[in-house]
Design goal:
The complex is a heterotrimer of chains A (about 375), B (about 150) and C (about 375).
Chain A lengths: L4 E8 L11 H16 L8 E5 L2 H4 L4 H4 L1 H4 L6 E3 L6 H14 L5 E9 L5 H6 L15 H15 L3 H14 L14 H6 L2 E3 L2 E2 L8 E10 H7 L4 E10 L13 H14 L4 H4 L2 E3 L5 H6 L12 H6 L24 H17 L12 E8 L3 E8 L4
Parallel strand pairs in A: 2-3, 2-4, 9-10
Antiparallel strand pairs in A: 1-7, 1-8, 4-7, 5-6, 8-11, 10-11
Chain B lengths: L25 H14 L2 E5 L6 E2 L15 E5 L2 E10 L13 E8 L5 E6 L11 E6 L10 E6 L2
Antiparallel strand pairs in B: 1-2, 1-3, 4-5, 4-7, 5-6, 7-8
Chain C lengths: L3 E8 L10 H16 L8 E5 L2 H4 L18 E5 L3 H13 L5 E9 L5 H6 L14 H16 L3 H15 L13 H6 L2 E3 L2 E2 L8 E10 H7 L6 E10 L13 H14 L8 E3 L7 H8 L8 H6 L16 H4 L3 H17 L12 E8 L5 E8 L1
Parallel strand pairs in C: 2-3, 2-4, 9-10
Antiparallel strand pairs in C: 1-7, 1-8, 4-7, 5-6, 8-11, 10-11
The chains are: A alpha/beta (about 375), B mainly beta (about 150), C alpha/beta (about 375).
The structure holds zinc ion.
Zinc ion binds next to loops of chain B.
């Protein structure tokens, strides 16, 4: 059977709206160099590399080939995976399977994006079926607004609930030197920000960022030598069920429910709210931070506003701190975004999260989300799985 | 699957992905292009560890993964390592009407080749031919600031 | 290490004008592979799809086929590149212990997009892209370099095309079977010297699927006759810029091949049949050198002597190769399927007698920047 795998190093760029100082390949090199430094190792020790992004965001075909200089992958095995918004966790999962398979000992996952280089919503719109759906589909905000307005009607959630989540993530970002948007924000600020698509307002929504992230995975024997406290992979699960938009369940997230349920089973978790110590969740919009709490099994369906959000359970000093890094609404270089979740969760376990460190993290949850209806889940632990 | 067409007309939607792009050139190639645009010169950079000289310049050495801070000016001459005479036309893609010549020019003073157009009679182009870069008069800071390579006669 | 087997395969007939949509193509091959394995979709526990957002003209292109690939409710991921890499991911996921049976499916419709425009986007927008290079012109640069280094002639390259199009006459799945001569290839229109039309693979549509299973599952799921073991695999990447490489140097392929041979515990002597990535005629002898079947520079001459013919010492591309059908993301996976059929003794009129060990090969990027090599056995 497969090998146990731990994360031994994480690196990320300083993310920003426009990184005009660095080309895409230079951003990748920045993240790779930092991950190698974090793991205190050299590139020669890396046996294989996995990379991904979203093709139509920079219009680079064969990114795995183009990125060679930044990856340091000349004469190494390189592999490309891509699944849209979840590309970051997809890259992480592929690196994990590279190592867990026993074929490679040390594997680096790299996600990156320069969202400043194109029209993000125009590129995202091309994910819709060209024959049936592309013409009326306008991008990511509409579907997120729609699902939350349904949730509001069904369960009495409010715009203020979403604003509480937005303020939490944005204020957490103040503690993260890598975050793109770092601003002190009140619930009122969020509520007063311009309406994008009811009920989603400007400060509820993620930005588009330039950035890259690299995470180094190693098999047990190597990980123990390289790192005194590796973040062990306890579960890596993906679910996806989209064919047409009209087929989707909008009131809850079936793929997220199934993916987390499977991951908790692998990790031996029965009460996630209590047993998890920190979560880095791919919440592209603050509304998801309300609605999806149900699908993470933190509460029963519809109970998130009352039992989670309004009780401030997920603040830094709450029972389960969510997004100490500031999450996706602070930083969103799309192909890297989900990998940053994995990297941040790993750093929490490794005790390297600096100003945003949650004390005594033994189990961490990291997720990826992508339209349409992709849900990726990682569970990392301080103890061997 | 095949017989449905006898009953129903085959419908095909034409389409095009229209997304505008810009590409950040970054520290290394920006320097290269500014030198090319302002001074009409072709520079390369050298690995501090193994000494390999790259053109276009590299952000990291391919073999050593070291930062490359050591710059050298190239004479702009080189040798045709390989070439092709292109006989088909892709409007909007090809910079010239066929037949025209692409080549990899092994640059004097560097360890790598530069891919570019070679302005030469397609019947006369040869591997090993000595060529020199022709710098464009109007320069914008792009690879086409080297207009093409021309045989050294 | 636990062994992984191919327990079922399915492919469309490859064509240059297939009317089916992506999801119809995938529906066809997924069902064929399931039938071939004698299992139902419920026995598949994860799916790896292979597609390209560029070729499909769709962001997250795998979403077009997630239902027909049988991925609903299952763990799915998407490899972008050649199908040989998709199979590699399928095997890794099984070896990790997380999964037992993987569906790997690839689709491609070259006729629905622009080869030149799409492969041009594989070049760096900061340097070479504006010069208008594409897969054909860059391959032509590699072909000329190979001629310079090896002394090969255009006629010798043409001989590869004659052989592979001829082999395709025996393969009902091939898109372009042709009975042609070296003179025909030489007389076909010059595309980018030294490559002529018949040195280049056709723009092709099609899909292919393989089902991989862990040894524990492979025993349970299928008979000995159908099971083909994945014995070794290796992949490796060379430099990106064409000028950074010696285009006739196959060092990345050599490294990938060594890994695959070592893992399988075989040498070139043990290999009975080869499916190599011949998107252009010159590539076949060049990659055969990299794979170690002859000395560097000897590929064209040995090909000319008939060594790699269907009736030769080592049959190469009995399917007709990519020259007879090149659905890009599918191409290497189609080669793996041909190897499976050869090892099972089910290759019909193109059967290589007594094939025990087969090699399949796929590439990514321009001029074979990256390679994946598979050794398969009974
Ligand atoms: Zn060096």
């Amino acid at each position: 059977m497969g090998k146990r795998v731990g994360i031994v190093g994480v690196g990320q760029t300083h993310h920003a709206a426009h990184r005009l100082d660095a080309s895409g390949v230079e951003l990748i090199a920045e993240a790779v160099t930092r991950a190698l430094d974090d793991a205190d190792m050299s590139l020669e020790q890396v046996d294989a590399i996995v990379i991904g992004n979203m093709d139509h965001f920079e219009n680079i075909n064969y990114v795995d080939m183009w990125a060679t200089d930044g990856l340091g992958s000349c004469m190494k095995p390189v592999f490309k995976v891509t699944t849209g918004g979840t590309t970051g966790t997809t890259v992480g999962a592929a690196a994990y399977y590279h190592a867990a398979s026993g074929l490679f000992d040390v594997v680096m996952a790299v996600g990156w994006e320069k969202n400043s280089e194109s029209d993000t919503q125009a590129a995202i719109a091309t994910c819709a079926n060209p024959v049936l759906e592309r013409d009326p589909f306008a991008g990511a905000i509409g579907p997120l607004a729609t699902e939350y307005s349904m949730y509001m009607k069904a369960y009495g959630a409010t715009e203020e609930d979403a604003a509480i989540v937005a303020a939490r993530d944005r204020n957490n970002a103040l503690n993260n030197i890598y975050a793109h948007n770092r601003m002190k924000v009140t619930v009122e600020d969020v509520l007063n920000s311009p309406m994008l698509s009811y009920p989603v307002k400007f400060l509820d929504m993620c930005p588009r960022s330039d950035g890259a992230c690299a995470v180094i995975f190693a098999v047990e024997e190597k990980a123990k030598k390289m790192c005194d406290r590796p973040a062990w992979v306890h579960a890596s699960v993906v679910r996806h069920d989209y064919t047409h938009f009209g087929d989707l369940e909008w009131q809850w997230m079936p793929t997220l429910e199934r993916a987390t349920l499977q991951a908790y089973k692998y990790a031996g978790i029965s009460n996630p709210l209590r047993e998890l110590d920190v979560a880095e969740l791919y919440l592209p919009c603050s509304t998801c931070g309300v609605k999806w709490m149900d699908s993470f099994w933190f509460c029963d369906r519809g109970e998130s506003p009352k039992k989670i959000i309004r009780k401030r359970v997920t603040e830094m000093d709450g029972e389960l701190p969510i997004n100490p890094s500031g999450g996706v609404i602070a930083t969103n270089p799309i192909g890297a975004t989900a990998l940053i979740r994995v990297g941040e969760a790993a750093w929490q376990i490794m005790g390297r999260a600096e100003g945003r460190q949650v004390p005594k993290v033994k189990k961490a949850l990291a997720t990826g989300f992508g339209g349409c209806s992709w849900s990726d889940v990682f569970i990392l632990g301080a103890d061997l799985p | 699957m095949a017989d449905w067409k006898s009953e129903v007309e085959e419908v095909v939607f034409p389409g095009k992905i229209c997304v505008p792009y810009s590409w950040t050139v970054g520290s290394t190639l920006s320097k290269w292009y500014v030198q090319l645009r302002d001074d009409g010169e072709i520079w390369a950079n050298r690995c501090p560890s193994c000494g390999k000289v790259y053109v276009p310049p590299k952000i990291k050495c391919l073999d050593c993964y070291k930062d490359m801070n050591d710059w050298v000016k190239l004479p702009g001459t080189g040798t045709v390592e390989t070439f092709t005479v292109v006989h088909y036309h892709e409007p909007g893609l090809h910079p010239k009407k066929p037949p025209f010549v692409y080549g990899v020019v092994k640059m004097d003073g560097a360890d790598t080749g530069l891919v570019h157009l070679i302005d030469v009679d397609p019947d006369k182009v040869k591997v090993g031919m000595r060529v020199k870069a022709k710098i464009a008069k109007e320069r914008t800071g792009h690879i086409t600031d080297i207009k093409h390579f021309k045989p050294l006669s | 290490m636990e062994r992984v087997a191919v327990i079922g395969v399915g492919q469309t007939k490859y064509g240059t004008d297939k009317p089916e949509t992506f999801h119809e193509l995938v529906w066809e091959v997924a069902n064929k592979a399931l039938d071939d394995a004698g299992i139902t979709v419920n026995e598949i526990d994860n799916v790896v799809s292979v597609s390209s957002d560029f070729w499909d003209g769709r962001t997250i292109s795998s979403m077009a086929i997630s239902d027909t690939s049988g991925a609903f409710g299952k763990d799915i991921s998407t490899v972008e590149g050649d199908g040989t890499f998709g199979a590699l991911y399928g095997m890794m996921r099984i070896l990790s212990g997380s999964f037992g049976t993987t569906m790997v499916v690839a689709h491609h419709k070259g006729t629905e997009s622009s080869m030149s425009g799409i492969t041009n986007t594989a070049f760096d927008p900061l340097v070479e892209r504006r010069l208008g290079l594409d897969a054909v012109t860059s391959a032509a640069l590699q072909a000329r370099r190979y001629m310079t280094v090896s002394g090969a002639s255009e006629q010798q390259f043409a001989r590869v095309s004659v052989k592979n199009h001829g082999n395709a006459l025996r393969n009902p799945f091939a898109a372009l079977p042709l009975e042609i001569t070296v003179e025909d290839v030489m007389a076909s229109p010059m595309v980018a010297s030294p490559l002529k039309k018949l040195d280049c693979s056709p723009v092709t549509d099609g899909a292919a699927a393989v089902i991989l299973a862990a040894e524990r599952e492979a025993k349970k799921l299928t008979t000995n006759r159908k099971r083909v073991w994945l014995k070794g695999v290796g992949h490796c990447t060379d430099a990106f810029r064409l000028g950074d490489r010696d285009l006739a140097d196959t060092r990345a392929l050599k490294k990938a091949a060594k890994k695959a041979y070592d893992m399988a515990g075989v040498t070139t002597e043990d290999v009975d049949v080869v499916e190599v990535y011949d998107a252009f005629s010159y590539m076949e002898p060049l990659w055969l050198e990299g794979l170690g079947f002859c000395d560097d520079g000897m590929g064209p001459e040995i090909t000319e002597r008939g060594y790699f013919d269907f009736g030769g010492k080592l049959p190469v591309n009995p399917s007709g190769g990519r020259l007879s059908a090149n659905p890009v993301q599918v191409a290497g996976l189609a080669g793996m399927i041909e190897c499976v059929l050869q090892l099972r003794g089910e290759a019909g009129r193109r059967q290589v007698k007594g094939a025990e060990v087969a090699l399949a090969h796929g590439i990514n990027g321009m001029c074979g920047q990256s390679h994946c090599v598979w050794i398969m056995g009974k």
